[in-house]
Amino acid sequence: MTLATPERYAQMLDAARSGSYAYPAINVTSTQTLNAALEGFAEAESDGIIQVSVGGASYLSGRNLADRVVGSIAFARFAKEVIDQYPGITVALHTDHCAPQYLDEWVRPLLAYEKDQVARGQDPLFQSHMWDGSSLPLGQNLNIAKELLEDSRAAHTILEIEVGTVGGEEDGHSAAIDERLYSSPDDGLRVVDELGLGERGRYMVAFTFGNVHGAYKPGVVKLRPDLLGEIQNRTARAVGAGRVPSPGPGVPGDKPFLLVFHGGSGSEPADIARAVSYGVVKMNIDTDTQYAFTRAIAGHMFANYDKVLKIDGEVGAKNEYDPRSWGREGEDRMAARVVEACRRLGSAGRALK
């Protein structure tokens, strides 16, 4: 297992698009959840993506610091040391959902740090960053994306953007579950007009098709994965008619965009498969792996309550309240959920050689 170089990461994404599979992008908040994700990728023989959110980056730096840049840098350095000890698969690091209010204190400083790394002949700390301008008018969203794409190109990283609104709640940002959750084919053409199709820098785009963060009962979330196909087809026709620039060699004519699936936890397998068939190469997974990790720990505590607590003057059982015991159970359960995601997305057994 090695940390992806910029070239290797591009190869991963292109292979997923042409091979009609996607990588699970697992949000982590600690070294334990990082290790769980890596164990899952290794067991599944799948390349993958590890990501930290704005809240996760702050959490990683500790309560007293609450510094997203410090947390991100410290995490990435630790992750590289661990990742590089395992042969066989490649893992990329990504920062997730940077809303406008966090841009100047998180992703822009990281890009500046990485541009300096590249200038010194090093690879960047992270392999991609997400700009979440979904709360802004599309024109403003894309204007900022254009600036960030230039910085990303200089930092040898890939930019991820969001067009449309993902419903639900994540890290304090919430959006209603309504018609704003659906992007349009016209949105795709506007993205190409502003960002091109790779010739100005590589990017991924999360068009929304009813996506919702979090966990909901059946019937609440109404995904329309065929909308992704309509966006790809409309853009491909525009390329063929000379309306927009050609995406260049190696890009499938029917899938000009590298797509991202947000709010994927709890989605129906058929909806996931259809979305992947239209060019989704990255699917974010957070809620399901959070639950898997915590559920195992809760089970341990309920089963051993008289050992993890000093009840009626007893002393408990140190081997049961030792964080390594219940933490290991959480890692195992989360790793199993990562394996399930790799199999469902088709990346299992397809690690690049």
Automatic annotation (TrEMBL):
InterPro entries: Aldolase_TIM, FBA_II, Fruct_bisP_bact. Pathway: Carbohydrate degradation; glycolysis; D-glyceraldehyde 3-phosphate and glycerone phosphate from D-glucose: step 4/4. Dihydroxyacetone phosphate binds at residues 214, 263-265, 284-287. It is an enzyme of class 4 (lyase). GO terms for molecular function: fructose-bisphosphate aldolase activity; zinc ion binding. Binds 2 Zn(2+) ions per subunit. One is catalytic and the other provides a structural contribution. Its cofactor is Zn(2+). The keyword Cell membrane does not apply. Zn(2+) 1 binds at residues 97, 213, 262. Keywords: Glycolysis, Lyase, Metal-binding, Zinc. The active site is at 96 (proton donor). Zn(2+) 2 binds at residues 132, 162. GO terms for cellular component: cytosol. It comes from the Bacteria. Coiled coil: none annotated. It catalyses: beta-D-fructose 1,6-bisphosphate = D-glyceraldehyde 3-phosphate + dihydroxyacetone phosphate. GO terms for biological process: glycolytic process. Its EC number is 4.1.2.13. Belongs to the class II fructose-bisphosphate aldolase family. Catalyzes the aldol condensation of dihydroxyacetone phosphate (DHAP or glycerone-phosphate) with glyceraldehyde 3-phosphate (G3P) to form fructose 1,6-bisphosphate (FBP) in gluconeogenesis and the reverse reaction in glycolysis. This is Fructose-bisphosphate aldolase.
